[in-house]
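Q: Could you predict the 3D structure of Xylulokinase?
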Amino acid sequence: METVIGIDIGTQSTKALVIDGQGRILAEHSQGYRVDTPRPLWAEQWPDTWWQAVLVCLRRCLDAPGVDPRSVKGLCVSSLYGGSGIPVDAEITPLHPCLIWMDRRAEAQVQWVKEHIDLDRLGDITGNGVDSYYGFTKMMWLKAEHPEVWERTRYLLPPNSYINYRLSGEIAIDHSSAGNIGGIYDLAARTWSTEMINALGLDHDRLPNRLVDSGAVVGGLLPSVAGSLGLHSGIPVVAGGVDAAMATLAAGATRPGNHVAMIGTSMCWGVINQRVDVGQGLISMPHVLNSDRDLYTFGGALTAGASVSWYVDTFCDEDKAAAGERGNAFERLEPPARELPPGADGLLFLPYLMGERSPVWDAKASAGFIGLSLHHRRHHLYRAVLEGVTFALRHNMEAGTQQGVTLDDHLIVVGGATQSDLWMQIIADVTRMPVYTYRENVEAALGAALLAGQAAGLIDLAQPLQHGTLIERCMPSEDAARRYDELFDLYCQLYPTLKPIMHRLNANHTSSE
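A: Sure. Here are the predicted structure tokens for Xylulokinase:
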């Protein structure tokens, strides 16, 4: 039986899995690690941590019963958005940790860009805006703050490109990873923008000149790596791409209009389309499938499931104690929360516990419960948190439709949130869309495996995907949807109304530290 391997390098763990030609998962393993945060708002990782985790995961998968390493016909790597990329020297030795997506140290560079660059021109070329989220601002920080590192840097490599080099000895960058850098990638021409690179004071020769589709073969597996793993040398190493787009592919998004919400610690909603309007505040890059034609446009909330966990951990010790070791607090909170009407008896929650990404783009935004009274109990606040995160989802979806994207008439949801029947119903009611989920665990490593399967000739991604069981989970209720329309309008008014106060509180807090 011929198989392929998908690998996903995540922020807190790496995962590998083996699938057959029908997309069935035969083995999987994950290896955890930590993000380095040497200062507030900094987040970085050394790439050797990823490489060692990749090797552990591959060995565990290949040792699993029913997996024959000699039957593996290819592998592909998905990875977290690597921000600045990894600065490596001419021998491809890392010179500095990678400044990953959550790193916010480049705020001074963001301000410089806003003052010195034509932002309309930047948006027209790149399809993206300016924020310390984007890799190009992190590159600017690295050049300004560590000129000695910059001087020795030969390439800036996204995580999957670096791992692909370790596997194949070849240097390349996929279009999704290049586009996600923002600022220096011409989204229409599908190449680096010399105009913007020069305007931003960056250096073209530090960017890999080989740009490839996510499904393209970068090179063959090196004999040294193959020998240590028991694999055939020379099997295809497929380029891969950004994990959010990979997970969307795994959930079946292959054509314009397909859209998927991934709700775990954070929330990422993405749609496949062929046009972009940077004014709506979303992020766009070439999709990992048909990247010469299709775009992946997405928006996200920084704290989705994290808002729920924060609430339960902070306020629900009584529920956790009552649930005991065999239960959890959610089992106690969900039944009474389900009996409440939409709006949790006059309560709204802004889920900006770490600032917010799209479409707000405000690192100083903060969270809050609005409408609290003596009547409210823990289950009211719990439902309000679920609703607030869902309003953030709708906020991003509406930004997508406002830029002219026609969405499919149903929403696919993947991630940890799917364990809550209440949350799925709230999502259906708030978005006015039927919600579908997968019976299986659908994630980025599976998307990578599907691209490997296509490159190896085992899977045809031009056909409808049959690798999972999609089930209808919830249908929207018209009465609830009408009430949520009213509440969403109020939700959208809260941020601009409270923004000045949020910023003053943030300034006072920062100055007192």
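Q: Anything worth pointing out?
A: Residues 3-246 form a domain with the Nucleotidyltransferase; domain 5 fold (CATH 3.30.420.40).
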